[in-house]
Design brief:
Aminopeptidase; 2 domains; single chain; elongated; 9 helices; alpha/beta; 4-stranded antiparallel beta sheet; 8-stranded mixed beta sheet; Alpha-Beta Plaits
């Protein structure tokens, strides 16, 4: 499988660089999705366009089990700072999270699998809008799931580039491996007045100070320390003049969790934190919006991916994945079928490491056939088992 993937390295690089030069954000991935759909049709896939607004679903094979491979296609609203032949031509947009390579490697796996005699079906899910959501708060995976993209699927796999790990390695973990996410916004309501007469006001900043302490005590004092979670404040706005105490302050933040029980508890504790302002003479409005499920890698799927990695890359090149509370919408596809996401080493040796979402992010393209081979071989093994 590695030999087959290396044989199409030039094509993988060409695809990846083309997508990198023409990044598209959110659901506006019309050019990218069009190229993907055209290529898949040439390979003999049964292709559906416009799934989840601009996603592409393609299937090949007949009967038997169905293995799905997901790749995200969208870029980020970032001004690229690299100096390469394939630098972004769309100012203010950049593939700073490796989705250009995810798309290229999935196309490579599709090319290889189209030439195999399959004992079942492989379905590719090329997804828009992983990095954000639409006006209704729905991401690309949520939209595609709602339109039946994974109906009848038995297993789902995906990969994500890792710029900190060497080329030729993958990392895999089972169980909770990524955070679920919710966003919250609040308004603390006091009574405004002159800055020289604070005793005539209910200062919303004082109320805010108590709320901040309460929020930052939730994880350390109210939750089980063995349950990964985080609550962060990202935005605070209030006031308009140095000598005026405003009547309100607005806030926004994020919640991360790996357990639905903890998610529920955090919601309750966050409301309790804001109740403090009522005891101090103020009031509040709080809104919590669900963003996405945590990534829970299935044990069996994880083990199959590990075995593929050991066989293709060697025992020493399969590592334990670094777990974090960073959010991904891939878990949306795992609602009806077991699945897992692994990370692929793409570190550029001899160059400073720039993490995901950095304007100088880039990757070593020698990793492209590695990721392609792992995707294709994993799909085959599930169909053969």
């Amino acid at each position: 499988m590695l030999k087959q993937a290396h044989a199409i390295s030039e094509e993988l690089i060409e695809w990846r660089r083309d997508f990198h030069m023409h990044p598209e954000t959110g659901f506006d991935v019309f050019r990218t999705a069009g190229i993907v759909a055209d290529e898949l049709e040439k390979m003999g896939y049964r292709v559906k366009r416009g799934v989840g607004k601009t996603g592409v679903v393609a299937e090949i094979g007949d009967g038997g089990k169905v293995v799905a491979i997901r790749a995200d296609m969208d870029a980020l609203p970032i001004f690229e700072q690299n100096e390469t032949d394939y630098v972004s031509k769309n100012e203010g947009k950049m593939h700073a999270c490796g989705h250009d390579s995810h798309t290229a490697m999935a196309l490579g796996a599709a090319r290889i699998l189209a030439q195999e005699k399959l004992n079942g079906r492989v379905r590719f899910l090329f997804q828009p809008c992983e990095e954000t959501a639409d006006d209704e708060g729905k991401s690309g995976a949520q939209r595609m799931f709602a339109e039946g993209a994974v109906d009848g699927v038995d297993y789902v796999i995906a990969q994500h580039v890792d710029p900190t790990s060497p080329v030729g390695t993958i990392a895999m973990s089972e169980g909770p491996s990524g955070g679920g996410v919710e966003t919250w916004s609040a308004t603390i309501i006091g009574k405004g007045g002159h800055g020289a007469y604070p005793h005539t006001t209910v200062d919303p900043y004082v109320l805010l100070a108590h709320v901040i302490i309460a929020i930052n005590s939730i994880v350390s004092r109210r939750l089980d320390p063995f349950e990964p979670s985080a609550i962060s404040i990202g935005v605070i706005n209030g006031g308009f003049a140095e000598n005026v105490i405003p009547d309100r302050v607005t806030m926004k933040g994020t919640i991360r969790f790996t357990s639905l029980e903890v998610q529920k508890q955090i919601r309750e504790e966050l409301k309790r934190a804001f109740e403090i302002v009522k005891a101090l003479g103020g009031d509040y409005e709080l809104n919590i919006v669900f963003g996405g499920m945590p990534l829970i890698n299935d044990k069996h799927v994880s083990e199959v991916i590990r075995n593929v990695g050991r066989d293709l890359l060697g025992e020493g090149n399969v590592h334990e994945m670094h777990k974090s509370l960073g959010a991904e919408d891939f878990p949306e596809f795992l609602k009806n079928a077991p699945g897992a996401m692994y990370t692929l080493g793409t570190k550029i040796e001899g160059r400073e490491v720039y993490e995901l979402h950095h304007p100088k992010f880039d990757l070593d393209e020698r990793a492209l056939p590695v990721g392609t081979a792992v995707l294709a071989e994993t799909a085959l093994r599930f169909l053969k088992s």
